[in-house]
Amino acid sequence: MNWRTSVWSAIAGSWQRGVLTGAVVIAGVGAGLWLAFVVGDLRHSGEAASASSTPMESASSMPSPSESPSATQSEAPPTSSPSMTPTEPMTPTAAPSQPSAGAPAAWPIGLAAMTVTQSLRVRSSPLGTADSALYQPSLPQGTRLRLVDGPVFGEGYWWYQVTNISANLEGGVTEGWIASADKDGTPWIGPSPEACADFQFPVTDITVSSLAELQAGVVGVWGGCVTTPWVPPYWVTITLRGDGTYSSVAIKGAGEPAMYYGSDEDFPEKLYELNDLQDSLKGIGQIDIVFWPGDVNRGELRNIKLMGDRLEFEFFHRGDYGPLTYRLYRIAPVL
Fold first, then answer.
1. Is the CB of residue 159 less than 8 Å from the CB of residue 165?
2. If 0-12 CB within 10 Å is exposed, 13-18 middle and 19+ buried, where does residue 224 land?
3. Most buried one in 10, 186, 260, 321, CB count within 10 A?
4. Exposure string (b/e) for 159-195, b if CB count within 10 Å is 16 or more?
5. CA dihedral 188, 193, 196, 197 (to 10 degrees)
């Protein structure tokens, strides 16, 4: 073999070895890709099988949207033209902590009152005290008296000290203590027709600083006197509720409704609304006066002053006729 033959043999052998090596490499890469594909497919199949073996929540077990309130739950009292949208529900002010007896009216001290039940007993001090003596005879219905102290809780009753008792008691007694109501809250005393003749209403500082406080603070049962340009003052009881409805009633024999206009009967159209608190901290609002169903007149509330458990405001019928000035004491929370 000469040198040319040796060189050619070396080159041929090298080329053959390169081809073989490349083939091996390509085969290895292909095998790797095939293995990766197979493993990935197996993993995917396993996950799918696992998912299918886990039960999904049924539609019945999924949380459903809250049901809309029914009309009977959210329906506002119907109104007649002119209509007024009631205020948003307000939280009534909490009643002071007290024993579990029925909640009678908290009458203002100084009130000219009268008995509204038969045979009301007079004692020297409230029941439950050691020296509580009974005076004779009992007081008949309509007996006039004046509240000078109280209320004091004793033996399940609320007691007021009274004076100027118009009935004749043994020994010339003209003062003592009487229970203002039964244990269930049924009243035994109330304002007399003369209650507004010398009605006392001390004006104190306004106790609210926002419209929300005023709206919440007026909710309750209020009793006091209304002064009009046309008739002598007379006693009224007005209940303002958190849903924007109200009730009003004048004392028997007053001759006029509590709002002077309209009716003392309860109607769903009897609505009020407080709109604004001015820089003076006096509120303004409006009130619907109902003569009978379907006959509603809009009035204005002005200079509303809330002073703790005292409320004063002016009412103008149709915005023109007035003012009627109301000076009221909170006598009970709204139950």
1. no
2. buried
3. 260
4. bbbbeebebebeeeeebbbbbbbeeeeeebbbbbeeb
5. -130
- The mean predicted confidence, pLDDT, of the chain is 78
- What is the β-pairing status of strands 295-307 and 176-179? unpaired
Q: List all residues 6 or more positions away from 189 whose beta carbon is below 8 Å from its beta carbon.
A: 107, 113, 114, 115, 116, 120, 145, 160, 178, 180, 181
Instruction: Evaluate whether 185 touches 95 at the Cβ level (below 8 Å).
Output: no
- Between CA 231 and CA 237 the distance in angstroms is 17
**Quick count: other Cβ atoms within 10 Å of Cβ 56?**
9
Task: Give the model confidence (pLDDT) of 262-278 as tens digits.
Answer: 999 999 999 999 999 99
**What CATH number labels 211-332?**
2.40.128
Spatial distance between the Cα atoms of 237 and 246, rounded to a whole number of angstroms: 11
Return phi, psi of residue 6, to 5°: -65, -45
Q: 12-24, pLDDT tens digit by residue?
A: 444 344 433 444 3
Secondary structure (3-state) at 212:
helix
Q: What is the pTM of this model?
A: 0.69
Can you give the residue ranges of every domain in the chain? 112-191, 211-332
Reduce the DSSP state of residue 105 to 3 states and report it: coil
**Per-residue b/e over 21-46, b at no fewer than 16 CB within 10 Å?**
eeeeeeeeeeeeeeeeeeeeeeeeee
**Strand intervals (E) in the chain:** 112-115, 120-123, 134-139, 144-154, 157-163, 176-179, 189-191, 220-227, 234-240, 246-250, 272-277, 283-292, 295-307, 310-317, 321-332
| Sheet of 310-317, strands arranged across | 246-250, 234-240, 220-227, 321-332, 310-317, 295-307, 283-292, 272-277
d(CA 253, CA 236): 11
Place of tokens 């001015």: 278
